[in-house]
Protein: Neurochondrin
Organism: Pontoporia blainvillei
Amino acid sequence: MVLLSHFPEVTLDQGPFFIPKDLRVQPFKGAPPRELGKAGIMASDCEPALNQAEGRNPTLERYLGALREAKNDSEQFAALLLVTKAVKAGDIDAKTRRRIFDAVGFTFPNRLLTTKEAPDGCPDHVLRALGVALLACFCSDPELAAHPQVLNKIPILSTFLTARGDPDDAARRSMIDDTYQCLTAVAGTPRGPRHLIAGGTVSALCQAYLGHGYGFDQALALLVGLLAAAETQCWKEGEPDLLAVLRGLSEDFQKAEDASKFELCQLLPLFLPPTTVPSECLRDLQAGLARILGSKLSSWQRNPALKLAARLAHACGSDWIPAGNSGSKFLALLVNLACVEVRLALEETGTEVKEDVVTACYALMELGIQECTRCEQSLLKEPQKVQLVSDMKEAIGSVIHYLQQVGPEKQKEPFVFASVRILGAWLAEETSSLRKEVCQLLPFLVRYAKTLYEEAEEANDLSQQVATLAISPTTPGPTWPGDALRLLLPGWCHLTVEDGPREILIKEGAPSLLCKYFLQQWELTSPGHDTSVLPDSVEISLQTCCHIFLNLVVTAPGLIKRDACFTSLMNTLMASLPALVQQQGRLLLAANVATLGLLMARLLSTSPALQGTPASRGFFAAAILFLSQSHVARATAGSDQAVLALSPDYEGIWADLQELWFLGMQAFTGCVPLLPWLAPAALRSRWPQELLQLLGSVSPNSVKPEMVAAYQGVLVELARANRLCREAMRLQAGEETASHYHMAALEQCLAEP
């Protein structure tokens, strides 16, 4: 963009600006000064018109010649007024307008906009008004609207929106209208919104709207367009002013008693910030929505309110809903209305589904699912939860019915993606109800997830379109997860525990698809990728995949042995764990990988990759590191003997970790007799010696029975598998320790030669 500051400041010719008496423009009264053919130029009249059938207008040609040959400002101004007389108001086409521009150029309008002295008897703003009118006329040509000489006027034009003056002055009003016409024309060009935002237009528009002066409605309309085109940039450049507009709109919404509240429902989603919404705005918005949705409404009145509520739910969860009886009633009403709307839309035949409204209702149902499954500080009371679960079950039944009718030609439609998303959210929490219907739909879900996985780029685009549906027809809003598998993983994790659904998933090829997906997601965490900027969803997806694979290892071990994809998965786990256990903040993922790898190693123990190869040795060394560092001896006040305690890294996440840890200990124990090289490797790591040392340094009363059993299992198998292990344990007072902890099996094993 060419900045205004790059041009030298220009002023009109030295001395007073002379206007011939017969052409002198009086202070603009009556007709606005910007109308062609009247006292000035009105840009809004610069529209295509009738061409001269017999050729060019000779009078106009003569005046354009005078305009081109003008030697000073006075002559140019006079010739310009003659041109306006030669062209009837509105009787100007694009070609004529362009020829006028070619004759005038940008220099004269530039000088009109920047002059600081006006002729005697002429108000200061009149010349600027004429300059803006010329620009507005030229901006009706899209090519000229994107011209650098127009773009570098954006800061000046923006100042006109908030300039003080007589609100009843016709010339000033005309100048404001022309200014909006210029800015709107620029906004319609490909890079126009960026130039406007960089030129300070967002803040100027906000101030113009908040001032409620002439043209403030045009300011709001242009703001809406800029937010729709470049939301992130708008908030970056004008957050304080946009928040002020949001506060004003929210307050108006809360107070509105007429039809304007429904119009505000459509505007407000655009003004919700990408960061935190001010609490006072949330209060006003919730109060306004409560009054609307609590009334008997037609669909055109209710739907914008549901979409606004969905936008708030997506941005703030349930934080915008007050606690207490009123809040719980409002939330119950909101979710109930969403369920009813979904059923009506998806069950009625022969009617077109309002996809944007239904997708908004999906977002409200997700909010209901979250609140119904929340154990602490839920907004809902237990009877309300029971009722809403019943309502949502019926709505989910309608979603399943809709998805059963989706053919291959519709699989890439964003509304199908949105419908799969809400079903995934439901299955993540509830798989016992609608089991028959869910099982019937599983083949479609596997095929659908595979299609989107194989066309990941299109899936990401679908996520944007889904967000668009959920919020408004003009704004993309926050991004929703971009692949169907991520949405379905939690539900599939539950379903793989059950025989019937698991068999369907296996038959449809879900395990192979999940292996490919896991490897793809894992690639994002590999060296060369900045894991600090990865979304949490990537790690959560990896963990959930591990849980599904753990279910398959336990319930379908034959599948692990015969399907080649699990061999590839095992190789990836072995290669990845050594680095993973060293990374801060990723202990839970390391626990999943270690435990899954240990369980799979038992089933794949005959694989060449597990016969003491560098990769297998590195994996088991890392697994031992994970298992051995979970507990430490901790001194206690007033006691000579330490107690067994969780190490700091494990303590905060032990509730999520302990099941994996115990399963990992059990799996390692099972691997020892199957892999002859493992016991000597464990001995070299000094794990058995350090484990006995740890047990000997703490009070036996501080070690829970399940911990004693886990430790004994590992020590016994290592002692049985290798004579050197037994000798090392005896040297570490293993027999005495076994006696103190009543480890009869270990004591007996160490007593043997």
Observations:
- DSSP finds 38 helices and four strands in the chain.
- The first helix runs from residue 58 to 69.
